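Table S2 (continued). Query chain:
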Amino acid sequence: MCVRTEETTFILTQNSKHSNIKMFMNLIQMDGYNPLSVDAMSYSFKEEYAEQINTLLEAFSFTPASVKSFKNKFTPGEIARIMRSQNQDWDTITELISKLVDLSEANIKATFKEGFWIDHWTYNLELIKSFKEMYPDMLEKALYKEKDYRFYVSPAYVLPRSKRYTVKEGKLVQRNGIQEIELEPSDDFKTWLVNDDNEVYKTNLMSKLWILAMVKFSVLDPNGGRLRNGSR
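Corresponding output:
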């Protein structure tokens, strides 16, 4: 999921300095694993900014009909396509998209595919280290102040040791470590971990790192020396 992306921290725009950290850390599950593939992302306007968003879109010559079409979600490409049809220049397009993204919540989508890999955890730590090197004055805010980090819920999970280990020819072997949930199109599958009130559970980055560190410690190999490198 997150392979060699730490360099992008140095080239992100002013409005998205740690967007990669937020996206990839959100996709780590409560068990410490993450899906393999990240799908196309869309954005949803935050309700508390509705009036500000409408004023902004109207100022950029968007019709009421087009504004209504973005009520549920939009992609930067859709905004750019409409503005290009109005002969707007790219600087203006970039300005509007940056402002809209700041007033929206990212709809992150991912695909499990064929397995989990423990080393993706280390790539996420590299992203945070790169951010610290580039923006040390913003590290405290990124770690503690932004309480919008979530836990992804995958339609697949790693089975407990009691169900994935078996004896073959007198030797202990591991096989069939993953259990996939067969979903019907009508199933209301929750993509994010929710609390007892059925609300998406959110915390700050440092809290999630602490939780994941404890989870990693719990899945050390039997000798207590190293982490297991994923399951398929």
